[in-house]
Amino acid sequence: MDNAMVDKQDSAHQSDPLRRARLRWRARRGLLENDLIFERFFSRYEHDLSDADVAALTRLLELSDNELMDLLLARTEPEGELATPDVIRVIQILRSV
């Protein structure tokens, strides 16, 4: 398990399985590359997500498929309101899976 996830989960573990399931369903994307990354991510980290992780993922999933793919493949970096510590941390984890 990633240390960043361990550090965050201690105080704010996302224990609602329905909320996690909805997030996983929402992560199903039109681009196969995004789907593969999210599938690996959820396989490894779904049960370790914190509330902050879920909020960051929710913000990422509001992006278009192409914007999201560019972030996941490190073609771009988060900017503006998206460049929060939680979003940046989750992107780093997504890039590592």
In short:
The chain has 97 residues and is an all-alpha fold. The protein is built from six helices and no strands.
What does this structure look like?
- With 97 residues, the protein is an all-alpha fold.
- The protein has a single domain, classed as Flavinator of succinate dehydrogenase (DNA polymerase, domain 1), CATH 1.10.150.250.
- It has six helices and no strands.
- α4 crosses α6 (85-96).
- It is globular and about 30 Å long.
- The relative contact order is 0.18.
- Residues 5-11 have low confidence and may be disordered.
- This is FAD assembly factor SdhE.
- Belongs to the SdhE FAD assembly factor family.
At the fold tier of CATH, the topology name is DNA polymerase, domain 1
Helix content: 55-70%
Our measurement of the CA-to-CA distance between the termini, rounded to an integer number of angstroms, reads: 11 Å
CATH superfamily: Flavinator of succinate dehydrogenase
If you average the pLDDT, what whole number results?
Answer: 82
Q: How much strand content do the residues show?
A: under 5%
**Helix/strand order:** HHHHHH
Q: What is the domain total for the residues?
A: 1
GO cellular component, one term: cytoplasm
InterPro entries: SDH, SDH_sf, SdhE_FAD_assembly_factor
Keywords: Chaperone, Cytoplasm
GO biological process, one term: succinate metabolic process
